[in-house]
Task: inverse folding
């Protein structure tokens, strides 16, 4: 009862810890392009991408230096930190450091004063006059070598290809489109996927893009490849699934079961043969004992008078002159 009371009392504190908001901390709030600073994040439930953005990051990833960004593991259980090289973002300041998970499910920013970078009034997201975006997503295998197929068959790194077909269904050009994607066994948390640069889409234009996706070791079961495309009137999300079966491991498991069964059967037969041999040896020694007893009983005993006669004869001859 005392233990249950202790657990119940600790539960609210645990819930508060799990609900702690995500945070971003910098080792310094002022830097020049080329300087390095330490970024520490906490409270993010999945891998996080950290980038430097201009325009206060109001337009999302389009304001951020995606190439110079860094990735950090999930930080919901422990603070994660790494070194970030300061770069000039694609948009003028005011500047921020932006930490976001795939699909922008969690986004936290903190100000950064970058010396030498121009400052301009912030620009709100431009959704365009009637601009809209349609995204069709699919995932498939990729041509691979014999070694790659063997590696995948035994649960090693497996490659997939994410295909995105973007269509501008509005009446204005879409510029600054960006893709944020990740791969995982669920729809939360996962490994970020490197996305290509998206060119301007004219009204009515359709353009396909291919993104290479790696299923990390051990690769097995179903995976979600999900994310969002930004730059239209609203972000457009996508979520497709793919599966991989490490048939090589299954074959090895079957062979191991067969080998174990064969070894067990051999041991059983060996024990049976040993037991039969021992029984045969015991039966043979028992028969030999019976024969010896029979032979000793068949030898007749010497009568007493013959023994006495032999003694008199020896005494007579021994005493003769």
Result:
């Amino acid at each position: 009862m005392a233990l249950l009371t202790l657990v119940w009392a600790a539960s609210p504190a645990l819930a508060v810890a799990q609900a702690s908001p995500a945070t971003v901390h910098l080792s310094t709030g002022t830097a020049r392009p080329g300087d390095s600073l330490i970024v520490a994040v906490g409270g993010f439930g999945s891998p996080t991408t950290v980038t430097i953005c201009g325009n206060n990051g109001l337009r999302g990833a389009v304001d951020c230096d995606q190439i110079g960004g860094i990735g950090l593991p999930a930080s919901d259980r422990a603070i994660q930190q790494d070194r970030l090289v300061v770069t000039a973002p694609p948009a003028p300041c005011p500047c921020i450091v932006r930490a976001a998970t795939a699909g922008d499910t969690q986004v936290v920013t903190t100000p950064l004063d970058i010396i030498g970078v121009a400052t301009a009034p912030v620009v709100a997201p431009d959704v365009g006059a009637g601009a809209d975006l349609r995204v069709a997503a699919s995932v498939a295998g990729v041509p691979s070598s014999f070694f790659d197929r063997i590696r995948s068959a035994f649960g090693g790194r497996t490659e997939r290809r994410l295909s995105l077909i973007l269509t501008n269904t509005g009446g204005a050009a879409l510029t600054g489109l960006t893709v944020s994607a990740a791969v995982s066994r669920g729809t939360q948390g996962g490994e970020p996927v490197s996305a290509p640069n998206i060119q301007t889409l004219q009204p009515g234009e359709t353009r396909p893009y291919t993104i290479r996706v790696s299923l990390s070791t051990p690769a097995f079961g179903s995976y979600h490849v999900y994310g969002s495309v930004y730059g239209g009137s609203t972000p457009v999300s996508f979520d497709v699934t793919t599966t991989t079966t490490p048939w090589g491991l299954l074959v090895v498991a079957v062979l191991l079961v067969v080998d174990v069964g064969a070894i067990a059967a051999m041991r059983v037969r060996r024990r049976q043969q040993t037991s039969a041999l021992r029984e045969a040896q015991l039966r043979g020694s028992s028969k030999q004992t019976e024969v010896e007893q029979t032979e000793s009983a068949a030898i007749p005993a010497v009568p007493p008078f013959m023994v006495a006669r032999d003694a008199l004869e020896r005494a007579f001859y021994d005493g003769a002159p």
